[in-house]
Amino acid sequence: MRLCSLISRAVPVVLLLMAFCIFCSPATAGEGLKVTEMAVTTKIVRGNPIDAVRRISSTSVKVLYCFTRTVNSSDEETTIKHVWYHNGQQVKESELPVKGKKWRTYSRRDIDKGSVGNWRVDALDSEGNLLKSVEFRIN
């Protein structure tokens, strides 16, 4: 009987502490920033990508863009980075502003005959956490 009484008094306290830990813990890095769309594209028209490249010839375009649409739960300005990789080697890094709750941005990469191979672009938050990644190939 005594054990049941102790447990019945302890359960609400434990639940209250659990709720406190969930709702009052500091936010983790990048928690409020989400990438809702990311695409490598041949052109951006009126702030939107016109296509999503998965495979393309190096002779068909001179520039590719990496478009990113974000949603941020915070009103605070922040940044994201686009990190471009060619055959596993980092070749470019672009720091881009995120100035609103809903934001669109993009980086660009010049393309030539030496661009043939496997590519990846990572979107990182201001703390360096991976938000999203997109892969494509240039023939």
Report on this model:
- There is one protein chain.
- With 139 residues, this protein is an alpha+beta fold.
- The protein has one domain: Coagulation Factor XIII, subunit A, domain 1 (Coagulation Factor XIII, Chain A, domain 1).
- 17% of the residues lie in helices and 50% in strands.
- Strands 4-10-9-6-7 form a five-stranded mixed sheet, with no helix packed on it. Strands 1-5-8 form a three-stranded antiparallel sheet, with no helix packed on it.
- A hairpin with a 2-residue loop joins strand 6 (78-86) and strand 7.
- The longest helix is centred in the first third of the chain and has 23 residues, at 2-24.
- The chain is globular and about 65 Å long.
- The N and C termini lie far apart (76 Å).
- Mean pLDDT is 85; it is low at 13-30.
What is the name of the CATH class? Mainly Beta
Largest sheet: 5 strands, mixed
What string gives the helices and strands in order? HEEEEEEEEEE
CATH H-tier superfamily: Coagulation Factor XIII, subunit A, domain 1
Poorly predicted regions are 13-30
Placed side by side, the strands forming the largest sheet appear as: 4-10-9-6-7
Regarding quaternary structure, what we see is single chain
Amount of helix: 10-25%
Summarize the structure.
This protein is α+β, with helices and mostly antiparallel strands and 139 residues long. 17% of the residues lie in helices and 50% in strands.
What are the main properties of this structure?
139 residues, alpha+beta, five-stranded mixed sheet, 10 strands, globular
